[in-house]
Amino acid sequence: IIGTINEIGSKFIEELYIKRQELQTSFNKFISSDASTFGLVGIAGTGKTNAMCSLALQSLENNFVFFYNAPLINKSPLEHIAQDLNLFFSSTNENAVILKKLDELGRFIDKSVLIFIYAIDESTFPNISIELSEIALAARNLDNVKICISCKSNIWSHFLKSGDTNNHLYEELIKFHKGIG
To answer: Is the pTM here over 0.90, yes or no?
Structure first.
């Protein structure tokens, strides 16, 4: 996703990106808040990808950052994290334990662990909505783990409900964002 002006296919070119102060301020408030989940939602072509890349890159200095491209996720995001850290985590760890271990890691290194999942609406993983709800539920009780997701606005409500009931992702997002539904 991240590249240079000379690389074909680069979606984010840092030297061309102009930071949006309002988004920057909101994200900084989120990082210092007790909220566990941040959502970046908008119509196609409004700069969500660039904003997510910029926020992730700027977060590298003071946080432990993971960045996942949801269209490439073909299984649970937590399984991808476990795979990426297979030297630190046993491959037999259950998904529920992964976030707790990341929370311990954050406490040990005295940094927040930020998990960016970009373009959840483009994921081919059939259970992504359920997984994100469960991740939000688990993250609510952790001190050092925060989740950041992006989604197109036309499908956003699909990720916030299970049937007619607001899910855990909605419950966590509403703690920081007002009027998300």
So the answer is: no
